[in-house]
Amino acid sequence: MHTRHERTTGSTVVRKVVAAATAMLLFAPGVAWVAGARGRPADNKAPVAFSGFDHGWSSLSAFGKYLGDRLPLRSPAIRSDGWIDEHVFREDPAFGGSASPEVMRGAKNQLFFREDFTRSCRPWNTVAADMSSLSRIATLIADSGRDIVTMVAPNKSTVLSDYLPKRFPERECWETYRDELWAALDTSTIPGWLDVRSLLINRRSATNHPLYLSGDSHWDSEGSLVAVHALIETLAPGLFDDAEIVNTGMRTYTGDLSFLTGMPRPARTEVLEVQRDGVGRVSGVEIGNYETRWVNSTQSAKVIPGRTVIVGDSFAVRALDQIVPYFEDLTLVIPYAEDPSIVSTAIAGADHVVILIVERNLSFLMNGTLGPEFVDQLTASLAG
Predict the structure, then answer these.
(1) Domain spans of the chain?
(2) Strands (DSSP E) along the chain, which ranges?
(3) Among 88, 155, 235, 378, which is disulfide-ready with 359 (CB 3.0 to 4.6 Å)?
(4) pLDDT for 1-10, tens place per residue?
(5) Which of 255, 295, 299, 249 is nearest to 276 (CA)?
(6) What is the pLDDT of residues 197-206, one digit of tens each?
(7) Beta strand pairing status for 245-254 and 103-105?
(8) Burial class (CB in 10 A: 0-12, 13-18, 19+), 32
(9) Comparing C-alpha atoms, which of 178, 25, 64 is closest to residue 112?
(10) Are strands 245-254 and 193-194 parallel, antiparallel or unpaired?
């Protein structure tokens, strides 16, 4: 049994350790800066530029970001701060005392992207309006005579909701939005609609596999293959062959959510590859920042003929190695370019169109890059 003196002494030691660590985080970068050291960005993006003090109070915020990106010891500071959040304060890691955590920790070492919840609680528009926009786009494509497959990849939190903490601030509004969205999708008449969520839930129930990477916001190769199988069967029934799926063993990866904790940790995942005899890659060319095109040659094996365009985000990117071998000519267009005509022009040049975007990005895209201006451009492109 600990005496009151022992408990007081122990808590005093903890406070002193935390205070010392905090002092290191606050002052060590400044000392190193004075000594001439400069840091490198720790989050895979260019350091923020600073244009001067001509923009009023906003200049101070910009100057702070400018210094923050160049502080020496920034990466160790992020990792140290994340460690203190997790092990001392028992909180989800967030760099900076007032920062909101970007990652939520769930059961069985699963990490979840906080934007799954914040975007559900603050969507850009109503579910009904977003469903109308998505349906309008798919209808324009279908009415033009092109094949269309429309897919929404469910958030990791939607499929693995039983791994989430029982209580968190956004839980009620997240559940309300999620249920309304998927009910609307399940009862929709969107041309080419393919219900990936049900397929993933059924697969998980049958195998007890999570289908999403533990330290990442995306599906693993088994999860993406569920979507790829359904896609190929929709466009070319009978083309998908289980015998062409090869388990190539375990591979090490470091997940995007692991990086966001400030303490990136490598993990292992099983990889399922598509290996099709008789299909050879002719080329894979990046057309622009938002477009990449692959062309395959084929001998005895069948492929989906003509030109196919996938309008997809990072979930489509994660599935590309499994998708490409089934197509004669495939282009991925990522719908985040400032000029929406990039997407409309690509669709106009296609025989088959696939829309594959993740749940949390749907409202954002329907009111942004794929919003009204895009619909007008797509109408004109398809008419021309």
Answers:
(1) 4-96, 115-383
(2) 103-105, 111-113, 147-153, 193-194, 245-254, 266-274, 279-288, 291-298, 304-312, 327-333, 352-358
(3) 155
(4) 555 444 444 4
(5) 299
(6) 999 999 999 9
(7) unpaired
(8) middle
(9) 178
(10) unpaired
